[in-house]
Amino acid sequence: MVSSYEEEFSFHEQLRYFYVRNRGKIRSRYNDLTRKFLAYNDREENPTAFLRPPQFEALETYVFIKEFLDNAQVYKIFDDWRNKRGDFADASYYSARKGGLMLQWDTLADTQVEAQTETLFRQMKKYRESYPNYNL
């Protein structure tokens, strides 16, 4: 049983890490209009962009979930991530392990990781919405 919440297992941070590490590969799968929209709002590409960095990060995450992850429920995305399935698999084009990097959960015992993620998964699934609208 998990006795305390481990901050390094914050799923939104893990998802952000995955996105940032694969930003170019992921954006290449977006449609042209989406890529232009993100470029227009990205201060690195457009110095006059209106959005502040946290707003742009939220926009990027929203588009990432909508277009790349097919608007899946968060608990389903989390389940794929924790079980290393689909785009999160070690054999995936997007795998961090291909570059020989150690991931944050690699330093902890498998039982710690399983207990932590199982608890979070059950909570996510319990509070899921009928439609995953992340723009609320």
* Helix and strand element order: HHHHHH
Structural class, from helix and strand content?
mainly alpha
- Sheet of most strands: none
The number of helical elements comes to 6
Percent helix range = 40-55%
Count of domain modules:
1
How far apart are the first and last residues' alpha carbons, in Å? 33 Å
Strand content: under 5%
Q: Could you tell me the radius of gyration in angstroms?
A: 16 Å
Specify the overall morphology. globular
Could you list the spans in which at least 5 consecutive residues all have pLDDT below 50? none
Q: What is the arithmetic mean of pLDDT?
A: 79
Task: Give the total of beta strands.
Answer: 0
Any overview of this molecule?
The chain is mainly alpha-helical. It has one domain. It is built from six helices and no strands. Helix 5 runs antiparallel to helix 6. The longest helix is centred in the C-terminal third of the chain and has 17 residues. The mean pLDDT is 79.
Describe the secondary structure blueprint for this structure.
Elements lengths: L10 H11 L1 H5 L4 H10 L11 H16 L5 H9 L27 H17 L10
Defining traits:
136 residues; mainly alpha; 6 helices; globular
Nutshell version of this structure?
The protein is mainly α and 136 residues long. It contains 6 helices and no strands.
